[in-house]
UniProtKB/TrEMBL annotation:
<dbReference type="InterPro" id="IPR042099">
    <property type="entry name" value="ANL_N_sf"/>
</dbReference>
<protein>
    <recommendedName>
        <fullName>Acetate--CoA ligase</fullName>
        <ecNumber>6.2.1.1</ecNumber>
    </recommendedName>
</protein>
<feature type="domain" description="AMP-binding enzyme C-terminal">
    <location>
        <begin position="519"/>
        <end position="598"/>
    </location>
</feature>
<dbReference type="Pfam" id="PF13193">
    <property type="entry name" value="AMP-binding_C"/>
</dbReference>
<dbReference type="InterPro" id="IPR025110">
    <property type="entry name" value="AMP-bd_C"/>
</dbReference>
<feature type="domain" description="Acetyl-coenzyme A synthetase N-terminal">
    <location>
        <begin position="12"/>
        <end position="68"/>
    </location>
</feature>
<comment type="similarity">
    <text>Belongs to the ATP-dependent AMP-binding enzyme family.</text>
</comment>
<dbReference type="InterPro" id="IPR000873">
    <property type="entry name" value="AMP-dep_synth/lig_dom"/>
</dbReference>
<keyword id="KW-0436">Ligase</keyword>
<keyword id="KW-0547">Nucleotide-binding</keyword>
<dbReference type="InterPro" id="IPR020845">
    <property type="entry name" value="AMP-binding_CS"/>
</dbReference>
<dbReference type="InterPro" id="IPR032387">
    <property type="entry name" value="ACAS_N"/>
</dbReference>
<dbReference type="GO" id="GO:0003987">
    <property type="term" value="F:acetate-CoA ligase activity"/>
</dbReference>
<dbReference type="InterPro" id="IPR045851">
    <property type="entry name" value="AMP-bd_C_sf"/>
</dbReference>
<dbReference type="Pfam" id="PF16177">
    <property type="entry name" value="ACAS_N"/>
</dbReference>
<keyword id="KW-0067">ATP-binding</keyword>
<dbReference type="InterPro" id="IPR011904">
    <property type="entry name" value="Ac_CoA_lig"/>
</dbReference>
Length: 635
């Protein structure tokens, strides 16, 4: 029996038990059988859940790009590694074989080295969904540089903050990006960002849209001529198992974004293992994850997971609504996709459109369909299951986080019976628990609580870049000795998990994780604003949308509210990005506060949802009368 592949339910339970009883043996076997190592480990793990210190595969030596590319060359050299599907369907799709990927990544790795990038240096990658994005990431991994991919929808302020936090030496970007019928000038955004980021020495620029750009002498270089000159072979750096692989920023409920740090071997082992099992991956499959590589889903399931398994993976540059709402279904038919992995927000948006868009295409190449990023509601689940999966493809509702690195709770296709809206059972190796308010573990089934993980797993983030204390406090102090996810969940009568949503001040909008604090900070910068509070409220398509309660300064009170709202949204767009825009803005004269000055968001959340039934205990409020006023003014 191989631990790498789960065959049936009996095998699942057997493996699950084994992973709990003998975790060292379990992970040792998976790591041993499925990867190439320069040197094996002395010890499988050394962990401390109190101090939040985690080491996996101690002293092993490995390179993940070698595992993604080189080791497949003998058997799969001419097999397609990446299919690039451009934004414009009339532009030809590109098939990049493993041989070609090797050459492209080698050239890029040589360019990076020539430009002075060394092992341990941080490189910010701010690119659209084009092959160069994958190549740049793999090249960083090849030479041991730490990649920090920033989603190419973030504003210059957000890019600059991320660059500065991890002190990136280089930025890799493009002249522009295509998104549906729009072109976005990425280089302009980078130029603006770099005005406040002096640590960046070099900018490599990919030509994609042919938009005219300004190239700063001595700093900015067109990438293609460098690649043309570079050698097509390269030696991969020997990395320690715990050497950093990448930083990826995620929003917290307070303060600046958290640079989650993932390290090499643990991330590699767990990502590959989950890809194989959760998507029932087999040799000739064509896998398509529609996420952006700028998020963890893209890191783990467009790039690393598929390539580690020698799979064919799709990089899609476009959007689901361009040229029309049939784009996803057209691409599935065109490339004979076998596994399709997307977000509930996309499903809800497409389910609103005519069924003809789906029914025009034959989707019978599909074998497994997946969902990620936020809870999938019952209606969306059934639409996806019926009209895309044809009721024959298992729908895997996968729960995980940037911090977990890869999928944690999910059905295994053809193994775990699915149940609408349930992420179902933990993968072998993962030990979820539900906790009550008194920090006790809730035993038994049909219970509700805060979702924690009580035992470490290989791909957990090791720290927050530059701030281990914050890492420890955010994830390991609410429930001492356990990893706290920030999510609430319920466990049904058979032990299936259903994720009910965040229990902290993070709101998931269209599958994007947004912390309320940075948005409030952006609003408060408007000269007319005195104070603000943001909460999420249910939205048909986005899952949640943002509702802002804003107190104006006296000087702002006479202002036209429509204009003011527009200006505030522009500020948010500039500070964070358009994804954080407010759907509703209510101007109020005060906010419900406790005597210690804390805003009672629980009440604001209920008002935003339009649920006035029971505000709970308001006796601790300093200004209970404000609740009535806000209720009356609700939009
Ligand atoms: O609240 C959970 C939600 O997304 C959060 C993690 O967001 P992020 O780090 O951006 O990673 C998203 C992609 C893995 C979680 O804390 N979430 C993710 N998947 C699900 C989910 N909520 C419900 N069901 C899911 N399948």
């Amino acid at each position: 029996m191989s631990y790498y592949k789960i065959h049936d339910l009996e095998n699942y339970f057997k493996m699950y038990k084994k992973s709990v009883r003998e975790p060292r043996k379990f992970w040792d076997r998976i790591a041993d059988e499925n990867f190439v190592w320069y040197q094996k480990w002395d010890k499988v793990f050394e962990v401390d859940m109190q101090e939040a210190n985690f080491k996996w595969f101690l002293n092993a030596k490995v390179n993940i790009s070698k595992n993604c590319i080189d080791r497949h060359l003998a058997k799969r050299g001419t097999k397609t590694a990446i299919i690039f599907e451009p934004n414009d369907p009339s532009e030809q799709a590109l098939h990049i074989s493993y041989n070609e990927l090797y050459e492209r990544v080698s050239k890029m790795a040589n360019v990076l080295r020539d430009q002075g990038i060394q092992k341990g240096d941080r490189v910010c990658i701010y690119l659209p969904m084009i092959p160069e994005l994958a190549v740049a990431i793999l090249a960083c991994a090849r030479i041991g540089a730490i990649h920090s991919v920033v989603f190419a929808g973030f504003s210059s302020t957000a890019v600059s903050a991320r660059i500065n936090d991890s002190e990136c030496k280089m930025v890799i970007t493009s002249d522009g990006s295509y998104r549906g019928n729009k072109t976005i000038d990425l280089k302009v955004i980078v130029d603006e960002a770099l005005e406040k980021s002096p640590c960046v020495e070099k900018v490599l620029v990919v030509k994609r849209t042919n938009t005219p750009v300004t190239m700063k002498e001595g700093r900015d270089i067109w990438l293609q001529p460098l690649l043309d000159e570079a050698m097509g072979t390269s030696v991969a750096e020997i990395m320690d198992a715990e050497d950093p692989l990448f930083i990826l920023y995620t929003s917290g409920s307070t303060g600046k974004p958290k640079g989650m740090l993932h390290t090499t071997a643990g991330y590699m082992v767990y990502t590959a293992y989950t890809f194989k099992n959760v998507f029932n991956y087999e040799e000739n499959d064509v896998f398509w994850c529609t996420a952006d590589i700028g998020w963890i889903t893209g890191h783990s399931y467009i790039l690393y997971g598929p390539l580690l398994n020698g799979a064919t993976t799709v990089i899609f540059e476009g959007v689901p609504s361009y040229p029309d709402f049939s784009r996803f279904w057209e691409v599935i038919q065109k490339h004979q996709i076998t596994q399709f992995y997307t977000a509930p927000t996309a499903i809800r948006a497409l389910a609103k459109e005519s069924l003809d868009y789906v029914q025009k295409f034959t989707l019978n190449s599909l074998k497994v369909i997946g969902s990620v990023g936020e809870p999938i509601n019952e209606e969306a689940w059934h639409w996806y299951n019926d009209h895309v999966g044809g009721k024959r493809c298992p729908l895997v509702d996968t729960w995980w986080q940037t911090e977990t690195g890869a999928i944690m709770i999910s059905p295994i296709p053809f193994v775990t019976p699915t149940k609408p809206t349930y992420a179902s059972l933990p993968l072998p190796g993962i030990q979820p628990v539900l906790m009550d308010e008194l920090r006790n573990e809730i035993e038994g089934n049909q219970v509700n609580g805060s979702l924690c993980i009580k035992f470490p797993w290989p791909s957990m983030a090791r720290t927050i870049w530059g701030d281990h204390q914050r890492y420890k406090e955010t994830y390991f102090t609410a429930f001492p000795g356990k990893y706290f996810t920030g999510d609430g969940a319920l466990r049904d009568e058979v032990g299936y998990y259903r994720i009910t949503g965040r229990v902290d001040d993070v709101v998931i909008v269209s599958g994007h994780n947004l912390g309320t604090a940075p948005i409030e900070d952006a609003i408060n910068e408007h000269p007319a604003v005195a104070e603000s509070a943001i909460v999420g409220f249910p939205h048909d398509i986005k899952g949640n949308a943002l509702y802002a309660f804003i107190i104006l300064k006296e000087s702002g009170e006479g202002r036209d509210k429509t204009n003011l709202s527009k200006e505030i949204n522009e500020m948010i767009s500039n500070q964070i990005g358009p994804i954080a825009k407010l759907d509703k803005i209510q101007f109020v004269s005060g906010l419900p506060k406790t005597r210690s000055g804390k805003i009672m968001r629980r009440i604001l959340r209920k008002i935003a949802e339009g649920d006035f039934s029971n505000f709970g205990d308001t006796s601790t409020l300093l200004n209970p009368e404000i609740v009535e006023e806000i209720k009356e003014g609700k939009l």
